[in-house]
Specification:
With 290 residues, the protein is an all-alpha fold. It has a single domain, classed as MetI-like (MetI-like fold). The chain is 73% helix and 0% strand. The chain contains 13 helices and no strands. Helix 3 runs antiparallel to helix 10 and helix 7 packs antiparallel against helix 10. The protein is flat, with a radius of gyration of 24 Å. The chain starts with a helix and ends in a 7-residue tail after the last helix.
């Protein structure tokens, strides 16, 4: 009877397993194999090239620049988005008047399509008539070429990303805050604990499961930005704002070098797997599931 139950369970799982293999594992294995081939040029077919694509990648200055840009981009957007999301969630979870409208205002950027967001911020960043430079002019300051200056291009992308993602992450923190047991807060207040001590000793530890979930998603989002780059900078100027996934897109669809794009994809997947293992290894021991 137990074998019948096991067979029934595997048959129930079979459709999901087939879909998982067809759309996740099979493309990954195909990409790894494709990265070991030489590109097909002219009438010459693809041949096995071993690690030549990886050696070419290590000598590619643009790859190292895009990887460095991506690490800086993640370091700038991930902590900022999470801290801002927690602050907004604490604010709209309070008993203030008009908190429903404030929640809607914070969440509105998340509902906008990514292309629409990029076009809105393109107007903000326009050198002559953009909103930010108009404000700088009113303040008596000289305007900035936000997207055309290598010093500001990547920072401008970071600012837009934080604006869009903080409201999305706020929803998860708000749901977690509303599920917390109020008796612990009442006990802490009776003991005379300060607001900061309550947040550090009660709220923050209880939010760690949500923080782990949000952190993993924020890191993944930091390495999969394409839409905004396509509208705003196309990786320029001089690759100052180019990120790894957009460089993969360029190699695959602009330079028509699919094997090198596959090589870069394998590296990107390896980085994401390594980051996920590090995050779970360092943070999950601090997570207290209820």
């Amino acid at each position: 009877m137990n074998r019948i139950h096991q067979l029934y369970a595997w048959l129930m799982l079979l459709p999901a397993l087939v879909m998982l293999f067809a759309f996740t594992h099979a493309p990954t294995l195909s990409t790894v194999w494709h990265s070991l081939l030489s590109p097909a040029r002219g009438g010459r077919p693809q041949t096995f090239a071993g690690l030549s694509n990886y050696r070419m990648m290590l000598e590619d200055d643009v790859f190292w620049q895009t990887l460095t840009n991506n690490l800086w981009y993640a370091a700038g957007t991930v902590p900022s988005s999470i801290v801002l999301a927690v602050a907004m969630a604490l604010w709209v979870n309070s008993g203030m008047a008009g908190r429903t409208l404030l929640r809607l205002a914070y969440f509105t950027p998340t509902m906008l399509p990514m292309i629409a967001v990029a076009n809105i911020w393109l107007f903000f960043y326009t050198p002559e008539v953009g909103l930010f430079n108009k404000l700088l002019t009113l303040a008596g300051q000289e305007g900035i070429n936000w997207l055309g200056d290598p010093k500001w291009a990547l920072r401008s992308l970071m600012l837009m990303t934080v604006w869009k993602e903080a409201g999305f992450f706020m929803i998860f923190y708000l749901a977690a805050l509303q599920s917390l047991n109020r008796e612990m807060y009442q006990a802490a207040e009776l003991e005379g604990a300060s607001c900061w001590r309550i947040f550090r000793r009660i709220t923050l530890p209880l939010l760690m499961p949500t923080t782990l979930f949000v952190l993993v998603n924020a890191v993944l989002n930091a390495f999969k930005l394409v839409d905004h780059l396509f509208i705003l900078t196309k990786g320029g100027p001089n690759n100052a704002s180019n990120l790894l996934l957009y460089y993969i897109y360029e190699n695959a669809f602009s330079f028509f070098n699919s094997t090198y794009a596959a090589t870069l994809t394998v590296v990107l997947l390896s980085i994401l797997i390594l980051l996920a293992l590090v995050l779970f290894g360092l943070i999950e021991r601090r997570v207290h599931y209820r």
